[in-house]
Structures are given as C-alpha cells and as structure tokens.
Amino acid sequence: MAYQALYRVWRPQRFADLVGQETVTQTLKNALITDQISHAYLFTGPRGTGKTSAAKILAKAVNCRYREDGEPCNKCETCQAITAGRLGDVIEIDAASNNGVDEIRDIRDKAKYAPTVADYKVYIIDEVHMLSTGAFNALLKTLEEPPAHVIFILATTEVQKVPATIISRTQRFDFKRIATETIVARMHYILKDMQITFDDAALELIANAAAGGMRDALSILDQVLSFGADHVTLANALTVTGSLSGDTLTKYLRAVNAGETGNGLTIVQTELAAGKDPNQFITNLLIFLRDLLLYRQDPHLARSFYATQDPAAFAELIKQIDDTRVYQMIDVLTDVQEQLRQTTHPDVYLDVLTVKLATLSQTVAEPAAAPAAQSAPAPEALTETIKSLEQQVAALQQAAKGGTAPAAGPAAAVKRKAPQRHTKVHVNLEEINTVLGQATRQNLANLQSIWGDLLNMLDVGQRAMLHVGTKPVAASPEAVVVSFDYPMMFERVAKDQVLREQVEADLNKLAGNPMHVYFVPKEQWPQIRKNYLLAHPVGKQKSGRPAPGDAPTSAAASTATASAAPAAAPANPLVDKAKALFGSFVEVDNGSSKQTASSDNNQKQTDGVKTNG
C-alpha cells in the first residue's frame, strides 16, 4: 500500500479516539444511545480539532446496526464502506469548491430520495461558511423541513460567517483547541506503537507549534520523522518548526538586558542566516518571557520546553531580569509583531527591535540614579535657590506694605513642577474644552444609546480595543469625548489614526451628521471636567424670591416643596452647569462634608463640584 500521512493513518474511527473533545463526544454518544438523533448538526472550531472526523464517526454510528454504547462497530459492511469512502449514502461535500446555488439545489433535489443501503442519508458539508448567500437560502428550506431519512452535518472554522437562520436550525457543537498535554500524550502513544524513540522536549515543542490542532501536530511529527526516522530529537524538531532553542533565547536576552547591542545583533543575524522566520523569532521570545513571569510565581506554571530544557540557566536568567523589564520587553515585542505584518523587510525590524531592547535597559536604569543626584545638589544650585527665595520674601514684604500684588516672574522662576506620569500620548485639552462648551445632557444620552451599535459596526480587532472600559462622557452636536479605564489601551487607540477615522465615519452614519471623536484617560477626566467648570462659571441666576409681578405659589405647592426640601438654598450655578453637561446626579464637596444634588434638589456648594457622569 502507498505511504499515508500520519494524520490519515491515525484518523479517529471511534468517539473514544477523538481526544480533547470529551464534552462533544459524550453528548453525541448519549443522543445515539437514547435514539435522539437530530436532523442537522453544526460542528465549529479551529482547524485540526476533529470536526470532520467526528462527522464521519457520527455517520457510521447512525447507520451501524451493531453499535454498542453509542460507538460504531467498525466491522460491519456499512462501517467499513463509510471508512473507505465508498458508501453512496454518505456524501462529503467541500463547500469551498461547491459553493453555488446549483450545487445546493442538486443536494436538495437528491435528498428527497431514500438511501440505498444505509438507514440514513448523511450529507457532510465541510467549510460551510464558504457558501454564497443564494446557496444558504437554497439550503434553508431543506434544513427547516428535512426528509426523515436525511441528516446534515455542517462543519466550519468561521461560524460567524454562517447566517443565524442556519445556526438556529441545527444543533451546534463547539470544538475547542486541544491542550498541549493532550497532544503530547497522543504523539507519545503513536510513537510507542510505531516503536520509535523520542525526546520529551521535542514532543512539547511540536505540540506548542501546533497551536491546539492535532492534525497540525501529526503533520509536523511526520516531517520530523522524515528528517531523522530513527529518533525524534529536539534539534530536528527545532529545524522543522523554525523555532529557536532555549539556549539561543537565553543568550539573546542576556545580551539585550546588559545593553550589549552588538552581541544581540550578531545572534539575530546568525538565526536569520540559518533560515529562521522573524515572526517565529518574536513568538518564541514572547513565550520565553511569559514563562519567566510564570516561573517566578510558581515553577510548575511554566510548562513550555524552554523552562524544562535547562532549568538551572532559566532560573539564573530570572535573577538577572526583573518583572518590570519583562513587562516592558513584552510591550515592545507586541508592537513590533504588529508592524511585521505590514512590512516586506522583517529583518530590519528585528535589528531595530534589538537596539530598542538593549537601550531599554539604559533608560530604565536612569531613574534609579535620580534620587542620589537630588539628595546631594550642587552648591551652585543651592545658591541660586536661596537667592530666588530671598527675592520672593522681599517681594511679599513689599506687597504687604504697599498693598500691591508681587510680580509673577520671580515666583514662577522657582515653582517646582509637580511629578507627572510619563505618557506617550497627550490629551487635546483645547478640543475637549470646545466640546464641553457646546455639550448637553441630551447629546450625551443620545451618544450613549448608540454606542453599542457603533461597536458592532467595527471589525473584530477594532471592536476589541473599544469594547472594554470605554464610554462616552460628554457630547456636543458635533463631537463626543470618550474615556478609557485603562491608560495603555488609551495610548494605543489615540495613536491609531485609522481607527479614529473609522469610528468617526460609522458615528456619522448613526448620528446623521459629521461627528468628531476625542479620547481621554479615565484618571484625567475628573480633573479636566472640574477645571472646565471652574474656568467657565455661569452668570447670575434668579434668586429664590418671587418678583413683584409674579403669581403667588399655591399652598399645596408650597407645602410639597417645604416637605421635599426643608433646607433648600438658592440654586448654585456650578451645580446647574455640571448637571446640564454630565447628568442629573452631581456630588458636591464642601470640604468636611459631601452632599448630593439631583435634578430635584440643589445643595449649597462652596469648594468644588464632582460629577458622576
């Protein structure tokens, strides 16, 4: 017999052989045992997780006359014919190449006829999301009212592209990514059966490279066996997968952590010359750094082969690189990984990455030396400070005698800057204040009502950046201010001009007029809001006393007002403006006590206004 790939030789023939999908297999077996077989199934999940294999096993089980405990016997003529693919009553269709209306209409017409040999006619439609809209519509009626002898099994890797009307007419089963330990155990079993020796680290590397797909893992294992059939070694697995060894990554991280840019660049060029993929280089670095963090918390959490290949060297590297450095390296690697997708010169980005990581160690070390410098200031600096203070005292004394304010220049010269948090993106206060100048509560309510619709209009990547921790906090007829709970996410979105333009374009469609969007971190928003309210006070309001020509208030109204607010004070302009801009619930801070002012009750306010908007 001609050679067959490992994933074909070891394709599961029973539900018990389908590893990593216990929930799916147990549910299907129970349905077969109780004879509760549905007319349509939808199998969805990543590639290589067993969707098509499960469909064929199910097709055998429903037609096997000797099944036991929901499992096909695999010995009868029907089971063997389905396994060999020669039973005409089990039809497997690739929707990627048969996605037209005519093909589906042909299926619909033939489904009316009874099966020739088996009890059920089973249609397995793989990659069903590739069907055209017309093809889905043609399939819809058959799924809604199928013949009693027909079962449809739909398989897809992109269930979001399948119409909801199709999904609602099927029983959906989600196949999950297979755990690394499960893949390793399966390869261990196969190699033992084939009587081939192996390195445990090699199997772990192959399982990690497969990313949860059993078929991918067996395909890589097949390549490694072809590279060296007598023994599965870690070196062969590294060569086939294009991964970097733990020793190489350790040397690279030591070099960049010590600021040795030349050594780091040499390692990069050596690996690229050996045919390593730049994307794989960064992916391996991210996995290695993740294991550094996990190993520091608990050595058992770091399960990749990097942590187990040389535990002593791994533990030594942990002592040299602290968690702060690791976090910063991961941020840099993530940014470069995104940029690699849009460039035709990935090797250049790896060189830039190396320089950036090496200089990162120098920039991190600088703040540590700052306190020492501040603790021992130079004599010249002390002299200048003393002179400046003397000038301030003299100016204040002169002002006290003459009743005039001191000049602002000397005071400003020695004013020390408050410590600021270093951020990559600055908030556009001028534009935000312009929005606040025209903002109303109604505009904000309108924007909040369509915010969910706006997120649904974005693609998956854009929606992920705006889905968690964001909300409109102020809105005018032509603009909206959006706050971010997480500063890191704010910086990423604020720098993404494409995302901003897409949000504004979709917002224009929903609002019906041009809209601009401005972003602000949640931690800065209360101070921005307070500064605006204090800088833009409202004019004098009418007093609580009625004018001579005003109609007298009825007794009932007076009684109701008195009972509702016995200590009501004249309305405060700042409170009114805060409520008009940010909502009806306003918190008023009076120094030692705090009060609340709603739309029905204004409290006296002296020091500041806080809004819960």
Question: Topology of this structure?
Answer:
Layout (H helix, E strand, L loop, with lengths): L5 H4 L12 H12 L6 E5 L6 H13 L13 H8 L5 E5 L6 H10 L10 E6 L6 H12 L5 E7 L7 H4 L3 E4 L5 H15 L2 E2 L1 H11 L3 H14 L3 E2 L1 H8 L4 H12 L3 H13 L4 H20 L7 H5 L1 H10 L2 H18 L5 H30 L3 H24 L5 H7 L14 H10 L2 H17 L2 H8 L2 E7 L2 E6 L2 H9 L1 H15 L4 E6 L3 H11 L19 H10 L8 H10 L3 E4 L4 E4 L10 E4 L2
Parallel strand pairs: 1-4, 1-5, 2-3, 3-4, 6-7, 9-10
Antiparallel strand pairs: 8-9, 11-12, 11-13
EC number: 2.7.7.7
Keywords: ATP-binding, DNA replication, DNA-directed DNA polymerase, Metal-binding, Nucleotide-binding, Nucleotidyltransferase, Transferase, Zinc
Catalytic activity: DNA(n) + a 2'-deoxyribonucleoside 5'-triphosphate = DNA(n+1) + diphosphate
